[in-house]
Amino acid sequence: MAIAEFSWAESKDQAKLPGINGNKLKLNDEILISNICWFIIFRWVVIAALIFLQILALLASDTLTQLGIVEQKNWPIAITIVLSLANAAYIYALDYCQPSKYNSPSINLWAQIIIDLICLSVVVHYIGSTSTPASFFYILHIALACIFFSTLESLCVTILVSAMYTIVLLIENSMFIPVPNPILIDDNLSAENLRRNSVLLWMFALDILFFVVWYVVSRLSLVVRTHERHLLDAYKQINQAQVEKDQYAVLMTHQLKSPLDAIRSKINLIKAGYCGEASPGVNDALNKIDNRAQSMSSLILDLLRLERLKDTCLNTAVLESVDIETTLQKSIEKLIPVANSKQVALYVSIDNFICKVIPDQLEILLENIIANAITYSHDNASVEITSEVNRLNQSASITITDHGIGIENKDLPNIFNEYFYSPRASLHNKASSGIGLSIVRIAAENNKLQIKVASEPDAGTSFTVIFNNIQLPTDKQELTDQLPLTESSLP
Amino acid sequence: MAPRIAHVDDDLDIREAVECILSKDGYEVDSYLTMQDFINSLQDATKRPDLAILDVMVESMDAGLTAYAQIHKRFPEIQTIFLTSLGDMIRPYFENGSHEWVCIIEKPVEPKNLLAIIHDRLENTRAAIQTA
Fold this sequence. Notes:
The complex is a heterodimer of chains A (about 500) and B (about 130). With about 500 residues, chain A is of the alpha+beta class. Chain A has helices at about 30-60, 60-65, 75-95, 105-125, 135-150, 150-170, 185-270, 280-310, 325-340, 360-375, 425-430, 435-445; strands at about 320-325, 345-350, 355, 380-390, 395-400, 450-455, 460-465, 480-485.
């Protein structure tokens, strides 16, 4: 005896999204590497600016002195050299060295931050730590660390920044050396005290600012990262739902179509004489049953096709270079039995070209338009398939023309609407599902194709599919012969 | 000796129709309800078919495809044809590059078409064996 236990209790963690937890929201190596590359490029720009300034200082030193800009000493050259060498080292470590415990993107980024902070401290020292806004450039480093690192790491960067700025101020004001004789107070010493107070004020104010900036930016960064994670999860869930929806659609299609297939298989057996001779009346009735069952089968498959085409918008469909001649031949080959049953001749005259599309969808699009042209033609008529290639603006068009019942002017704007029903068309084709042109529309949308329709009631219709950004085949092989593809022309 | 054909489908009416058509044309037909029944039958070398006609959705969504993968690996000499309600709609479930060699027939069973495809497939195998 077999026993199975079933439980459908919903997992509580299923819909739970990650909360705000700075350390768990680290960026992966791929993003870190792209950031490193961005920093390296940014640093090359800074290096170029420094070189430009030095050239300017050499060429126009007198003018600069007149403008009040005093010529700097050797530090800009030293900074330029250090930054250039460091940048080259980062590139070397990233591109030419094997990643290891000591050569990870994270270590690379940390090295960049430390060297940049040392260089910035030198610049702040020479330009003026309290007299110019140079020290505010430290904030840029804190903000970047908050964006690209975890909260803890960005806090370390902030402490480092704060320590460096403090060291710069202490060195500049010789605060490491104790005042030798505090009893003798003179004017000079009092001025010195004032200056020290001002420096201390700068130190505390900026250090507090650094930590405030760290707190605000790291909070913002966490919120953004959490939302980013939520979006990623939502995207994954949508994709999963799409897969499940497709499976469900396939299952439903199968369940709906299977009984019809069984019925039609039996009809085919009777028609082929496997069940004995049937009277003409029975055969006639069977043909009618089969036709209706066939329309229903086509409708069921078309619904699945339509669902799949709609899903393509959400998924990242792969565009491929497609040879239009081959695709067209494939579509036509499938429709030859339909054309033969109505004695409709297909005349194909096309210049080959290559377009970037989703191959299956282009096939479905052409197949549907050509099938419509055949269906709405009168018996013994013809359908022409022609192309026009514009080499100048790299566009091309395929025109499918029939001489059938045509479309009335009032119906023309609605033909691509889902489930549009035209009694006139239905009278001509009882098997019309009304979704053939919806399929064409979605396939055209997904492949960014334009469609132009011209029609005259009782004279015929022509559908023109316009392709942009085409390529021409290299072998210049073109199919220009007029080939009537009817039963008589087939081997 | 008449070529042996195995047919797997969970629909009795389809099994009957295929059996009726193929038997009348002189083929020896073994019908199976599930893929597992068919795979088990392959243990017996005398029952191994020249060609297998597989439905895709038997028991599960892709039982036919899984069975095909197994059969193709263990007995590459057995020709395989898919006979399914979904026709070409199952193509996305195949790996890339298999469009040329995977033969998919859409149901309903059409005697003339089915016989032509089977005849063609068996002829190709025979020709391949002779040239080898």
